[in-house]
Design brief:
The protein is built from 6 helices and 2 strands, in the order H-H-H-E-E-H-H-H. The protein has a domain of 101 residues: Winged helix-like DNA-binding domain superfamily/Winged helix DNA-binding domain (Arc Repressor Mutant, subunit A, Orthogonal Bundle). The radius of gyration is 18 Å and the shape is elongated. 56% of the residues lie in helices and 4% in strands. The chain is mainly alpha-helical. Pfam families: Rrf2. One of its GO terms (molecular function) is DNA-binding transcription factor activity. This is Rrf2 family transcriptional regulator.
Length: 149
């Protein structure tokens, strides 16, 4: 089960905006590349706009980068597209049964492990920029590679 796809969609949008600077980047165009609904693109683009990464106006076709992708880390994108969850990768389930051995202690046991996983994720995402991703994509295209492996 995947946590969500907002991060990859956000990175996809930013990469498209960088590589298609000379054209109008409508939500329909971007949705066709991402293979999703334009409403999803508009929602994620709005989150990226709120974070200062994208310039877009509701009701006006087209979006563009608000700053260079070399200065946008994957951690920046992660934080931008997940505002409702803060920066927590994992959420705890609510109100486990205190009358159950596991229910009484599972959250406390998991907290430190979840925090460590969160720190590891953030450290890795902070090392990579959207510019690095676009560079990788262009190299794969140039080399004729079909996958990143």
């Amino acid at each position: 089960m995947s946590i969500n796809t907002k991060l990859s969609v956000g990175i996809h949008i930013l990469a498209l905006l960088d590589t298609n600077k000379e054209n109008v980047n409508t939500s329909e165009y971007m949705a066709s590349s991402i293979n999703t609904n334009p409403a999803v693109v508009r929602k994620i683009t709005g989150l990226l706009r709120n974070a200062g990464m994208v310039e877009a106006r509701p009701g006006v076709a087209g979006a563009k980068l608000a700053k260079p992708i070399a200065g946008i880390t994957l951690l920046d994108v992660y934080r931008a597209v997940n505002p409702e969850h803060g920066t927590d990768l994992f959420s705890m389930h609510n109100n486990p049964n205190p009358d159950c051995l596991i229910g009484r202690h599972v959250q406390t046991s998991l907290e430190s492990h979840f925090a460590a996983a969160q720190r590891a994720l953030e450290l890795e995402l902070e090392k990579v920029t959207v510019g690095d991703i676009v560079h990788d994509i262009m190299a794969m295209e140039h080399d004729g590679s079909l996958s990143g492996s």
